[in-house]
């Protein structure tokens, strides 16, 4: 950009100013740590505070999709995750509404505020998935929805008068609910994850883990991991996107031990040892949702919200959306007439960071 240059400069003079492409350094640049006692304080570290203030002002989008057969506890789990009624539970639906003839996609938005930070949360429900007699290709409407959101974003991005902040409706995370059968994954589970893991961040979870014994749960988890591996299905966080050794160590633990998270959901509170806890009351006692001895809900919550939320958004932007964008621009002929992107020079999408504060 010509920021700071006098406007009267000629093109020739301008071209002199264009710097030669810088050769790549033979060795990676080493960070220099500044000794504040010697040089005085510069203030580089205030960027964190500046980013915090900006995010506080604008908030951020997070879009989470839930997929799995009817009644597996999808709505209950998202309500448990966000400690609010962000998804309608099955009991409040009438029967006709409950079993749609095809997979329907329903997106409901909420604003959740905590500690002064606003999250614009959208829960995307997929009623009807896996509920038909013939479930062949029932992942297609879901893939279509995900791609439509990428297309919307791309159209906004190439718009001449584009918005300062492009509304982000892209799916950042897809929780896939596996039925707690204790046997193996169903062909439908494999089919769905095989197709969709290339377009969205899939996090598999074993639903209603309270219906299994500890041994059954541990065996089932191992079997599911093995089956996913044998079928070449990658789930989030994918190995190839680990950025450094720290990421790798942290994510390997999740991939090899926690996945798929065996969870229990509930929006009811009970009194246990003088404390109010979210739980499920059974004749044998209370299953505490956030107690790690009872289930892995707390691990999933920490993973999705407390440690990997920003990464989920970045992988969506830098990997899945980028793949869609590149493909779309390559086979431009596939666009409807008049809506092609031909002739439009696309602005470069920054590799990182993805827009956090929107
Ligand atoms: N045992 C057990 N039951 C659960 C759990 N989570 C939810 N349920 C119960 O399962 C039933 C269905 O829960 P929902 O959350 O509505 O399930 P859903 O997957 O959203 O159902 P659809 O919207 O119809 O697809 C309700 O009676 C819940 O109370 C769980 O972790 N364990
Ligand atoms: Mg539901």
Task: Describe the 3D structure.
- Helix content is 36%, strand content 15%.
- With 358 residues, the protein is of the alpha/beta class.
- It binds guanosine-5'-triphosphate and magnesium ion.
- Magnesium ion binds at residues 74-75, 87, 90, 125.
Secondary-structure blueprint of this entry?
Blueprint: H1 11-17, H2 36-39, H3 47-58, E1 60-67, H4 74-81, H5 95-98, E2 106-114, E3 117-125, H6 140-158, E4 173-178, H7 187-196, E5 202-206, H8 214-230, H9 245-258, E6 261-262, E7 269-272, E8 275-282, E9 285-288, H10 297-307, H11 309-330
Parallel strand pairs: 1-3, 1-4, 4-5, 5-6
Antiparallel strand pairs: 2-3, 7-8, 8-9
The protein binds guanosine-5'-triphosphate and magnesium ion.
Q: What are the low-pLDDT stretches, counting only 5+ consecutive residues below 50?
A: 1-20
Overall average residue pLDDT: 83
Query: Which sequence of SSEs, written as H and E, runs from N to C?
Result: HHHEHHEEHEHEHHEEEEHH
Strand content: 15-25%
């Amino acid at each position: 950009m010509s920021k700071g240059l006098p406007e009267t400069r000629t093109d020739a003079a301008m071209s002199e100013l264009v710097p030669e492409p810088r050769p790549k350094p033979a060795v990676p640049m080493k960070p220099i740590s500044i000794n504040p006692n010697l040089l005085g304080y510069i203030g580089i570290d205030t960027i964190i505070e500046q980013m915090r203030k900006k995010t506080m002002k604008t908030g951020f989008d997070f879009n989470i999709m839930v997929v799995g057969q009817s009644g597996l506890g999808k709505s209950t789990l998202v309500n448990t995750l966000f400690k609010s009624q962000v998804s309608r539970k099955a009991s409040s639906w009438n029967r006709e509404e409950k079993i749609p003839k095809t997979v329907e996609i329903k997106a409901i938005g909420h604003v959740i505020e905590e500690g002064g930070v606003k999250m614009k949360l959208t829960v995307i429900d997929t009623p009807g998935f896996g509920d038909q007699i013939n479930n062949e290709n029932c992942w297609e409407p879901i893939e279509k929805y995900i791609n439509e959101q990428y297309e919307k974003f791309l159209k906004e991005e190439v718009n001449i008068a584009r918005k300062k902040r492009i509304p982000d409706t892209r799916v950042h995370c897809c929780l896939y609910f596996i039925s707690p059968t204790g046997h193996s994954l169903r062909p439908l589970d494999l089919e769905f994850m095989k197709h969709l893991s290339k377009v969205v961040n899939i996090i598999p979870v074993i639903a209603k883990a309270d219906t299994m014994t500890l041994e059954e749960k541990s065996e089932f988890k191992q079997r599911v991991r093995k089956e996913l591996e044998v079928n070449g299905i990658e789930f989030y966080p994918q190995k190839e996107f680990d950025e450094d050794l720290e990421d790798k160590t942290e994510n390997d633990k999740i991939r090899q031990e926690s996945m798929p998270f065996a969870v229990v959901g509930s929006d009811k509170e009970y009194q246990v040892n003088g404390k109010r806890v979210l739980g499920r009351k059974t004749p044998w006692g209370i299953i505490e949702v956030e107690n790690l001895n009872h289930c892995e809900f707390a691990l999933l919550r920490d993973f999705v919200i407390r440690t990997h939320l920003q990464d989920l958004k970045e992988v969506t932007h830098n990997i899945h959306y980028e793949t869609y964008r590149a493909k779309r621009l390559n086979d431009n002929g596939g666009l409807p007439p008049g809506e092609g992107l031909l002739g439009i020079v696309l602005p470069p999408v920054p590799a990182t960071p993805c827009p956090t504060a929107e």
